[in-house]
């Protein structure tokens, strides 16, 4: 659940790295993939359930394995068709036409009946999820002419057809999830294999949670994704100002944060939460813990996203500012012992939950020193204990950068041991998600969310991580990859 900034981040409530070599996957003798697979080391898989992993729409799954019918393209700031060659929004009816020649992994042709069944089954759950259970779902029925599939609504819905950006297109069979991507799962002893045609060639990708050295064999073809702490031997003590050399780094929506309990005795106050951010030496943590392989951001939104409001500067490391805020809140340092106390005389002690099984000793020391500098006590507790905050790694949604799973009053308790209740933010997130269901989203609505989150400070974002891509024999690293491109992962693998 939580992590050290010097560790590979993990998604909340699930292990970050999949236990590979899944036995349920049967070999695919019909696929004549290369005898030398492309090993993919350290790819940040954020689900442990195989079906959920396939459907989670990360860059590999969404591009190669289980694509959606439509997708969001941040380069054009618009939605576009993927498996469809026609989409018409008639307000009270939506019409869809499939691209010709699409096939399920099992080899059968994709038919309009499959699309009709998918829309009938998935639309209600998708509207409930994306709308955080706050959008009305009008009655509807699905018509299939054999060429065109039409969703006919009893009345025009408030959301648009590009809500389909948010779901992989799939069906469930006795063998599990089945998709129409170019790659399909294939059992492999070295990890989780995906075999099929990529750029006109038979390919086999094998995802492995390990890093390539020392496990990589001589001459092995591989791509590895490494975070800053993984770029040097464990015995190497890096100087705090030293930047790591990485010829090909990649922005990822993966962040280390402290989420604050909105119901805590101190952390329920937004000014107190801001004071906590002021005392955290995020720049030093980025340099020391990640070799500057990352970014400092003022909310859990990637700076590269068009909805990131660049005028909202990262709060500085400022002990004087934090001291002033705490004094104004009546939390004054005692001249007797130097500890900061409440008006009732209680020592100000905060508890932060973390996964104690992970080695976060250096980060814990940094946090402890930061709190001591202002006369506060810090208690690190287990991830399942009641706390004022939680040190955690989050994997955000991309390309939407939807914060509703983390912050919405109807969804945040699925992630945190508390519930956030910010009505204004709830409404802003709903407006943004409605916009994302249209052909041309309004990213100024995400800027508005950024502004509201900046004021409330429910999270202290420590670092947004970047990954360094390294390549094995015969593969040259790309110079620049823009994650705003919906096909950015192709630039990684199709070398």
Structure description:
A hairpin with a 2-residue loop joins strand 11 and strand 12 (201-208). The chain is an alpha+beta fold. It starts with 37 loop residues before the first strand and ends with a helix. Residues 1-34 and 233-241 have low confidence and may be disordered. The protein has 12 helices and 21 strands. Helix 5 runs antiparallel to helix 7 (319-328) and helix 10 runs antiparallel to helix 11. Strands 1, 10, 11, 12, 13, 14, 15, 18, 19, 20 and 21 form an 11-stranded mixed sheet that branches. Strands 4-5-7-6 form a 4-stranded antiparallel sheet, covered by helices on one side. It is globular and about 80 Å long. It has helices at residues 50-54, 59-65, 112-130, 212-215, 270-278, 282-290, 319-328, 361-373, 404-407, 423-436, 444-456, 488-493, and strands at residues 38-41, 70-73, 78-81, 84-89, 93-98, 140-144, 149-153, 171-173, 176-178, 183-188, 191-198, 201-208, 222-226, 249-260, 294-295, 332-333, 340-341, 349-354, 377-382, 389-395, 459-471.
